[in-house]
TrEMBL record:
InterPro entries: Kinase-like_dom_sf, Prot_kinase_dom. This is Protein kinase domain-containing protein. SUPFAM superfamilies: Protein kinase-like (PK-like). GO terms for molecular function: ATP binding; protein kinase activity. It comes from Aspergillus oryzae (strain 3.042) (Yellow koji mold). Residues 1-208 form the Protein kinase domain.
Length: 222
């Protein structure tokens, strides 16, 4: 409801929802008490069903997790690699104090520039077709010095994951686990969808086999 009594603008929700209170603060809920519930499949579809195919320009994922192929190849059909990219972003957000890509007041091109800063050069055909790349990068690919340059994935890990954990006394990941996490994430964040890890490959990655899945089994048994 508007205080001036005027109707709400188009696209504005008519109602707000108060967050649910579960009896304790989120940081007080133990892993043994946490039960994941997957819900809201309003955007779900099967890429193998010809009647359900969607193109890149029909991807409604938030900008912060939107895979680059949805932007640079808008006419190509989305498939399982799209979920691998968004899963990598979700895993990062679970580990980190902030999303990997900052969508605050960002445009598609802002996100693309962040992806290049953090992950490295785009495939050549995407780079050449990116008309506004000169707003973010010099002709040879170096980031322009008159803008904020996001650090590499490895530096982001140190700044956004390791440092906050050390600050609150959790302790950072040891080097072996850190390398395993970064290797897994990089395989999931390959720019070209056909080069991204499959779900099977992610489950068989060093981090999943050595750390992730064993901890998951411990939680299930408690």
């Amino acid at each position: 409801m508007r205080l001036d009594g005027q109707p709400l603008p188009a696209g504005t929700p008519a109602r707000g929802t108060v967050p649910v209170w579960l009896g304790k603060k989120a940081n007080e809920v133990t892993l043994a008490e946490a039960h994941l519930l997957l819900s809201d499949f309003g955007e779900a579809f099967s890429p193998t069903d010809s009647q359900q195919k969607r193109r890149g320009d029909q991807c409604h994922a938030p900008l912060s997790v939107l895979p680059p192929d949805a932007y640079f190849e808008p006419d190509k059909p989305l498939s399982f690699p799209t979920d691998i990219w968004t899963l990598a972003c979700a895993i990062w957000s679970i580990f980190s104090s902030r999303p990997l890509f900052d969508a605050t007041l960002a445009t598609h091109d802002d996100i693309s520039s962040q992806q290049v800063d953090i992950l490295g050069p785009l495939p050549l055909e995407w780079w050449d077709s990116w008309e506004v790349r000169h707003e973010y990068f010099e002709e040879r690919g170096e980031p322009k010095k008159d803008r904020f340059i996001f650090p590499s994935l490895e530096h982001c890990f140190e700044k956004e994951i390791q440092a906050p954990r050390d600050k609150i006394g959790m302790g950072g990941f040891d080097r072996d686990e850190m390398v395993a996490i970064l290797t897994m994430l990089r395989s999931m964040l390959a720019f070209k969808p056909e080069e991204r890890a499959t779900a099977k490959a992610v489950l068989g990655s060093d981090w999943m086999v050595t750390w992730g899945l064993p901890e998951f089994e411990k939680i299930r048994q408690t």
